[in-house]
Amino acid sequence: MSEVSTAGFRLLPGRLSPDAQAELVGEVLSRLDNAPAYKPITPGGKPMSVAMSNFGALGWFTDARGYRYQKRHPLTGEPWPDIPAMLLELWAELADRSVPPDACLVNLYGPDAKMGLHQDRDEADLRFPVLSVSLGDTAIFRIGGPNRADPTRSIRLTSGDVCLLAGPARLAHHGIDRVIPGSSRVIPGGGRINLTLRRAGPSG
Ligand code: SIN
Ligand code: FE2
């Protein structure tokens, strides 16, 4: 498959085979039994339409106190489940060979979920990329530049696609305009799962 690459944004269409996608969906869903997805509250007080959980030492979280990474699930009080080995291998191959990711945000999109344009900037060391894996229903992804007013373009992310926000694109604004319900059968019951691997804590 061909690769789209512009100034630090890399899209690897179909990087995960259908078998790998099915295996990863299983790994994710079994972990969510112990770390159930919840709809976090933005600092502005609104519940997000995307349900979230995390894997790894640190998990991204938001509530009235703001955005941050924390070591425990907000509802269970337990540490987050481990990051599936397949994702660690993908990070080593595409992002960084020597420093592993310590956070994997799990985003679950139902038919009406969307995510507004934002930057990922709560990580300690922005030299590491953000690596994103899409599973299930196709999403209409929007990506712009480092300034909110920069022009944006719209890209379809389908199941098995992997993309990287690296270098100049690390602080690019991005979001999900909508998902296309019923466009994939990879997830039992439908929907979309997006996994983003990050190095959230300091690398030293
Ligand atoms: C995110 O920016 O955290 C999610 C992006 C996506 O769902 O593809
Ligand atoms: Fe993001």
Structure write-up:
The chain is mainly beta and 204 residues long. It has one domain (9-198): Sandwich (Jelly Rolls). The chain has helices spanning 18-32, 85-94, and strands spanning 4-6, 9-12, 51-55, 59-63, 66-70, 103-109, 115-118, 130-136, 139-143, 153-157, 162-165, 174-179, 192-198. Strands 1-2-11-8-13-6-3 form a seven-stranded antiparallel beta sheet, covered by helices on one side. It has a four-stranded antiparallel beta sheet with strand order 7-12-9-10, with no helix packed on it. A hairpin with a 2-residue loop joins strand 1 (4-6) and strand 2. The chain is globular and about 40 Å long. The N and C termini lie far apart (36 Å). Bound molecules: succinic acid and fe (ii) ion (FE2). Fe (ii) ion (FE2) binds at residues 118, 120, 174. Fe (ii) ion is lined by residues 118, 120, 174.
The unreliable regions are none
Note the total helix count.
Answer: 2
So what's the overall shape?
globular
Unique ligands: succinic acid, fe (ii) ion
CATH class bucket:
Mainly Beta
Return the domain count.
1
The structural class is: mainly beta
Q: Total strand count, please?
A: 13
Adjacency order of strands in the biggest sheet: 1-2-11-8-13-6-3
Rg calculated over all Cα atoms: 16 Å
Tell me what the CATH architecture is: Sandwich
Q: Quick one: CATH superfamily?
A: Alpha-ketoglutarate-dependent dioxygenase AlkB-like
Q: End-to-end distance, in Å?
A: 36 Å
Helix proportion range: 10-25%
How is the quaternary structure best described?
A: single chain
Q: Please trace the helix and strand order, writing H or E for each element.
A: EEHEEEHEEEEEEEE
Largest sheet: 7 strands, antiparallel
